[in-house]
Specification:
Order of helices and strands: EEEHEHEHEHEEEEEEHEHEHEEH
CATH architecture of the largest domain: 3-Layer(aba) Sandwich
Structural class: alpha/beta
CATH topology of the largest domain: Rossmann fold
CATH class of the largest domain: Alpha Beta
Shape: globular
Strand order of the largest sheet: 9-8-7-10-6-1-4-5-11
Helix content: 25-40%
Number of strands: 16
Strand content: 15-25%
Largest sheet: 9 strands, mixed
Radius of gyration: 21 Å
Bound molecules: flavin-adenine dinucleotide
CATH superfamily of the largest domain: HUPs
Distance between the termini: 49 Å
């Protein structure tokens, strides 16, 4: 087995999801390498050795600055061919998903996506994938010589093992057709704290909040806990909270350590996006709300009373 992990970076930081995948891959294959692709990425590349990479390949070129998938497909495909990698792993994100799909097509390789765990190595590598609304876990293998895997956000925590990677520059050979798409504009979402893909703690608001203004009580709780605020589709469709915070079938699939739902009914389309959370706590005034069926702790009551009390308790505990 020779494994390559795509180390997506934002600014000088490699994304937590990618570092988690790197750590898991290094457990299965001590020869795991990482690849960082972008412009001015030397600092980002230097971090990767601490998280399990034996080698880090760096394609650093102004032509790679925009976070577009096709140039990344070109660089990774070339690297896989030059170094003979048989497995390429990605931590799921919009960019990683597009790049993984393009790479699978380019290398005629099998792509298993939404993996929540990895086992074995070499030809015996197995990806674990939830199916049928997350009610069963399926073992996925690959029949192609090159295996590509896209791992669900939050599946693995980064493991800082303190190693030191050998960093090697690689060429940024971009195909003509890969330059046809250009980045017209890029807007950074104003936010404080972690994104919902990265946060260990998610405080999720549903339609039971009653108004967009009421999200402020969840923001206070999330801030006290050091987490992020997420939402349901009903909330997003009503324009109460931004789409990137939506959990579920048509939103993001997340696995935080703690999920707190306030005024969330627990519809199946929401459940498939959060049921692999380690601990699920629900606050709902309806004792028969479906979310209580898959919650570890349930509070039956009015969120307008309970959420502020919870925030005060957390603040008091933290001192
Ligand atoms: C094809 C398709 C895809 C979908 N994809 C998604 C998806 O990705 N993500 C998603 O979330 N949904 C998705 N949905 C929508 C989903 O079916 C539900 O409609 C939605 O999840 C409901 O959101 P909610 O829990 O916020 O609202 P509701 O179902 O209206 O629930 C509100 C809850 O708040 C409780 N409540 C009300 N007031 C209070 C109070 N004061 N205190 C405490 N509790 C209170 C109520 O008892 C109720 O349980 C999809 C639907 C379809 C058809």
């Amino acid at each position: 087995m020779s494994t390559l992990v795509f180390l997506e970076h934002h600014g000088s930081q490699i994304q937590r999801g990618a570092l988690g995948v790197l750590g898991k891959a290094a457990q299965l294959d001590p020869d795991t390498s990482g690849v960082v692709i972008g412009s001015g990425v030397a600092d980002a590349a230097a971090q990767a050795g601490k998280f399990g990479a034996k080698n880090v390949y760096v394609a650093d070129d102004a032509a790679l600055e925009a976070p577009l998938p096709q140039p990344r497909v070109d660089v990774i495909a070339q690297l896989v061919q030059d170094k003979g990698f048989d497995t390429v792993l990605f931590g799921a994100s919009v960019l990683a998903s597009d790049t993984a799909a393009g790479l699978a097509s380019r290398l005629d390789a099998g792509l298993n996506w939404d993996l929540t765990d990895l086992e074995g190595s070499g030809a015996g590598l197995i990806g674990k994938r939830s199916a049928l609304g997350d009610s069963i876990v399926v073992d996925c293998g690959w029949s192609s010589p090159i295996k590509i895997g896209l791992v669900r956000a939050g599946s693995f925590d980064p493991n800082e093992s303190g190693g030191d990677a050998a960093v090697e520059s690689i060429p940024a050979n971009v195909e003509d057709f890969s330059t046809k798409a250009t980045m017209v504009d890029q807007t950074k979402e104003e936010s404080s704290g972690p994104s919902i893909d990265e946060a260990d703690i998610l405080v999720t608001g549903g339609r039971g909040l009653g108004s967009p203004e009421n999200f402020s009580i969840l923001e206070e709780l999330a801030a006290a806990l050091g987490g992020a605020v997420a939402s349901t589709r009903a909330v997003v469709d009503s324009g109460w909270y931004p789409y990137p915070t939506q959990i579920g079938q048509t939103g993001k699939v997340v696995s935080p350590k703690l999920y707190i739902g306030a005024g969330v009914s627990g519809a199946i389309q929401h459940k498939v996006g959060m049921q692999s959370s380690l601990t699920i706590v629900s606050i709902n005034k309806d004792a028969n709300a479906p979310i209580f069926e898959f919650s570890d702790f349930g509070v039956v009551g009015d969120l307008n009373t309970i959420v502020p009390q919870l925030t005060e308790l957390v603040k008091a505990r933290k001192g």
